Amino acid sequence: MGHHGWQGNPPGTEQEARRRIVEAATACLDRAGLAKTSLSDIAAEAGVTRQTVYRYFPGLADILGAVAIAGVEEFAVRMERHLTSFDSPAEVAAESVVFGVRAVPEERYLSLLLQAGEGDFFTGAVTSREWLALGARILRNVPVDWRSAGVTTDEDFAGLAEVLMRLFLSFLRSPSTPPHTDDQLRELVRRWIGPALNPRG
Asked: What Gene Ontology terms describe what this protein does at the molecular function level (predicted)?
């Protein structure tokens, strides 16, 4: 691992190097915004060359993704808190889609994935193993009677999370014309996903 630069304080591990590049990117974004942040700016902020940054990230979009993911835990906490006000698995499923569609574009760092300038970048992030595992964890932590809906195993939660996240992604990337209101979107998801989560006798 190259140790040149780094403002005289080289990282000890590759993980530390990546973390410091992400922190440098976050500082640049906070100061100048996405439109005025380049890979060269991030390298300068970290005290390294562009070549060093490329050693850890293929391009700017990948750095933006890392910045966004660094803030995803806070987003997950807010989503969990919101979903706990709903009483059934079907309601939680519908509301998770509505919350994601409305909240992600307003998130300071998560929204960077939408603006990264590469059409499949956001799709790749949301459907990654890490994000799907996060979705499953959020659902599992919401205190509704998942067992009554037949959702009991890790595989069940993972599958439901993937369906909901892909649905959320579709509505986010390709909104209806005219766009659905929150209530319309909520009802649409309840109508077609809800029956699969109704209590089973």
From this structure: DNA-binding transcription factor activity; transcription cis-regulatory region binding
